[in-house]
């Protein structure tokens, strides 16, 4: 009984070596911090994330490897991680400021993702723009 249930699973593993044992690819991206609101020149960082990984993971990896990039986030009960501050500058309701998430694709188009840093899955060679701005 045991053998008959395990056999099909074992056969499947043998038939799908490329799918199940493929090494995780590394996806290169750039992160640009823009803060013209406070007159701070833009800073560009290179980092990478695992294939189909979320932006939050890439930002954490960048922060761990580069002392010039720091960020904090809060947890929204409905939408997940909210980017609160970058390099010591936090958005606030009084001034109606926030860190906007923009993405420049390799073909030069700039999009405004309709999800936050916890859900956005960057593609290779995208430029992730964290822009301090007003709403
Ligand atoms: C107003 C608003 C904002 C304002 C909030 C200002 C404020 N303090 O009031 C600002 C302009 C800051 C904003 C920003 C963003 N927003 Co917005 N926002 C809304 C909106 C229109 C209303 C929210 C609201 O006031 N609800 C009523 C109050 C009483 O409820 P609340 O739970 O307290 O609301 C809070 C949360 O909604 C939170 N919030 C707002 N946006 C976002 C986005 C994310 C990812 C998170 C975690 C939290 C969050 O801020 C509100 C005030 O504290 C909703 C759409 C909707 N109609 O609900 C979109 C919405 C929530 N936002 C959305 C998005 C995508 C963003 C951005 C990621 C856009 C971008 N590409 O930059 C950014 C967040 C970037 C970051 N720093 O992490 C999406 C979230 C979808 C998702 N599943 O992730 C929504 C649903 C719009 C949509 N349909 O695309 N947003």
UniProtKB/TrEMBL annotation:
<dbReference type="GO" id="GO:0015889">
    <property type="term" value="P:cobalamin transport"/>
</dbReference>
<dbReference type="Pfam" id="PF14478">
    <property type="entry name" value="DUF4430"/>
</dbReference>
<dbReference type="InterPro" id="IPR051588">
    <property type="entry name" value="Cobalamin_Transport"/>
</dbReference>
<feature type="domain" description="Transcobalamin-like C-terminal">
    <location>
        <begin position="66"/>
        <end position="134"/>
    </location>
</feature>
<keyword id="KW-0732">Signal</keyword>
<feature type="signal peptide">
    <location>
        <begin position="1"/>
        <end position="21"/>
    </location>
</feature>
<dbReference type="GO" id="GO:0005615">
    <property type="term" value="C:extracellular space"/>
</dbReference>
<protein>
    <submittedName>
        <fullName>Transcobalamin-1-like</fullName>
    </submittedName>
</protein>
<dbReference type="GO" id="GO:0031419">
    <property type="term" value="F:cobalamin binding"/>
</dbReference>
<dbReference type="InterPro" id="IPR027954">
    <property type="entry name" value="Transcobalamin-like_C"/>
</dbReference>
């Amino acid at each position: 009984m045991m053998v008959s249930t395990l056999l099909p699973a074992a056969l499947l593993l043998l038939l799908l070596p490329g799918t199940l044992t493929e090494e995780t690819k590394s996806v290169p991206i750039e992160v640009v911090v823009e803060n013209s609101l406070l007159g701070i020149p833009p800073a560009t960082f290179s980092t990478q994330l695992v294939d189909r990984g979320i932006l939050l993971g890439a930002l954490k990896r960048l922060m761990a490897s580069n002392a010039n990039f720091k960020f904090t986030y809060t947890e929204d009960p409905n939408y997940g991680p909210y980017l609160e501050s970058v390099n010591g500058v936090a958005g606030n309701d009084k001034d109606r400021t926030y860190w906007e998430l923009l993405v420049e694709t390799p073909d030069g188009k700039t999009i405004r993702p309709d999800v936050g840093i916890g859900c956005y899955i960057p593609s290779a060679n995208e430029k992730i723009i964290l822009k301090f701005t007003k709403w």
